[in-house]
Amino acid sequence: MKKFLSVAMIAVLLLFGACSKKEEQPQPTPQAPMMKQGPIVETPSQALPPGHEATGQKVEYNVVVPPDVKDKWSGVKLIIEDKQTNKIQEYTVKLSSEFKIPDSKLTIKVGDFLPDFKLGAQVITSASNNLVNPAAGVMIYEDGSQIFPESGKWGWLYAEHPTMHPFQHSRFSVLLKEGIAK
Q1: pTM score > 0.90 for this model?
Q2: Residues near 141 by Cβ (< 8 Å), separated by ≥ 6?
Q3: Phi/psi at 54 (5° precision)
């Protein structure tokens, strides 16, 4: 009888142990939403993109516009949204000129347009004349004081990647739509 009880007790314990363990099912991995890839830039590990210098460290970038790029492009189209009135306007602005946003204290100085923006060690240039990664160098002033970029000479607006280093303002957003060929 003792033998029977011992075997029965072991069977119950094994059965209880097997029932109490939950079988672990593999959980599906949530898929990240497809995001548009940002521009690929060549930077040495110690260099950071314009406007992202570490505190106390200032990296000067030279903008070099190849002659064929300079000869092809005359301006840019900017999309300006007034968040207060929900009004969106498109403006054509010549390169190397200034544009005052109507009914505001903001002025945009447009520098160079680079159809294929490329960032190197300390040089910003266009790798080609093809619209691969269109970008425009801008400086934005409010009441005469530069507010964009926070540091450095030029802030860059990217047509294909508008959320990359965007101009942030409580009332206005400024986006690059495209370059204007001559």
Answers
A1: no
A2: 106, 107, 108, 109, 147
A3: -70, 155
